[in-house]
Amino acid sequence: MASPLDRFRKQKPAEKPPTGKALGRSGTINSAGFISDQEINQALVWPQNLDTYAEMKATDATIRWILALVKYPILSAHWMVEAPDDADDQELEAAAFVEHWKEEHLAGGWFNFLRHALMCEEFGHSVFEKSADLRPVEFQWQSDDETAHDVSREAFVVSKLGPRLPRTILKWNVDDADPSRLRSITQWLGDGRGEANPEIPAERLVVFTRDQEGDDFRGTSILRSAYRNWRYKLEL
Predict the structure, then answer these.
(1) DSSP H or E segment with residue 69
(2) Of 114, 221, 203, which is closest to residue 166 (Cα–Cα)?
(3) What is the pLDDT of residues 165-214, one digit of tens each?
């Protein structure tokens, strides 16, 4: 009777893992920036779904309460930037710089940024455009031996993370060679001020997506599964 070791030796050698360019894609269909929708409820097909979720949030106390349960523990937390336990002096200084940036240089403040970022819960996504400039910064950091170091110099900082509201995003433009890679977004701005359809490249964006499926950067709203209950309640 062959032992388990003998049977193992007679097994066919494992094939080498495939290399080179992938043959398939996720299956998300993106035509010139417009992502096809598999939604079965017409009221929740993009972009109408954004209006529906906005109405649910604005008019139903239970929906508002559910969103508060998700968001307020994050918003009320004390956010700090800390270097790892084995950090060297460069990492300690970098952590102190980011903490200083968060408190002193981010336009609108960290709380306002988080509040807009968490809109990805009800809308599925939240997008920001980065603005940066060179400016003087002054902060202090402490080395492992508890020596305090004062820093005063010019630094390149992200001065603003401007929200680009979900209902203003017209197209999600992807790389032709790699559709899983976001190339830019196109906004629709109908107020007559400046360009009506600016295209913002991905390197200038910060994108939060909730429960993304495939290459659908729009994500999935936390309110999607509550729609039927909300609709019945509204009709009653």
Answers:
(1) helix 61-75
(2) 221
(3) 999 999 999 999 899 999 999 999 988 888 999 999 999 999 999 999 99
